[in-house]
Amino acid sequence: MVFGRSDRRRKAVTAEPVALKILVAGGFGVGKTTLVAAVSEIRPLRTEESLTEAGRPFDDIAGVETKHTTTVAMDFGRITLREDLVLYLFGTPGQDRFWFLWDELAQGALGAVVLADTRRLQESFGAIDYFERRGMPFAVAVNCFEGARRYPVEEVRHALDIDEQVPVVLCDARQRESAKEVLVTVVAHAMERASAQREPATTR
Ligand SMILES: Nc1nc2c(ncn2[C@@H]2O[C@H](COP(=O)(O)OP(=O)(O)OP(=O)(O)O)[C@@H](O)[C@H]2O)c(=O)[nH]1
Ligand SMILES: [Mg+2]
């Protein structure tokens, strides 16, 4: 009787999925909120505020003139990649004046997606610097906006001056499958890096 009960409990414990935290970062208006909403299986939490006339001197909407709102705290969503692997997604605010929130959002994260728009690559420099400096694994996802010229990933890598090991992929942040692929890339990259770091250094 007792054995049966503990056995059941053990089963329940092993069935618990692994939960990982992933950041969705990048500059202003690159599609972070869009990506989280596209993949989330729960209604995503958003913290959008209207872009106003008063904010015009600070909010550079050049290139994203159709944009009316901006994230002021974070986006939050969840996606089950496999039955034993759940990702919690935290989208960062894109504007410089919200940088102070990043350290809190980044705590405990396994890795990050840095979204980039090839028409405004410089928007995502700050996010790349941030993760490089902290040694947090990240992948760059080029969000292919309609009307934007397409560049080969190697050209984007060169323009962003990022390491060869950092994955660079093309995506459409509005498409669930495309956004999911980006997340799989980040998780795989972070896992690879973690296992490489665990391996003992080779002796020369
Ligand atoms: N055509 C096209 N439009 C997109 C795509 N991704 C986002 N958009 C649009 O671009 C605008 C910006 O998207 P958001 O998801 O709000 O960008 P964000 O990175 O969260 O912006 P901030 O939070 O203000 O930094 C929105 O109007 C989206 O509808 C895309 O892949 N293609
Ligand atoms: Mg946003």
TrEMBL record:
The name under which this protein is listed is: ATP/GTP-binding protein
The UniProt keywords, alphabetically, are: GTP-binding, Hydrolase, Nucleotide-binding
**Per the similarity annotation, which family is this?**
Belongs to the GPN-loop GTPase family.
What InterPro entries would the database entry show?
Gliding_Motility_GTPase (IPR052705), Gpn (IPR004130), P-loop_NTPase (IPR027417)
The lineage's top-level taxon is: Bacteria
Q: Which PANTHER family match?
A: ATP/GTP-BINDING PROTEIN-RELATED (PTHR42708), GLIDING MOTILITY PROTEIN MGLA (PTHR42708:SF1)
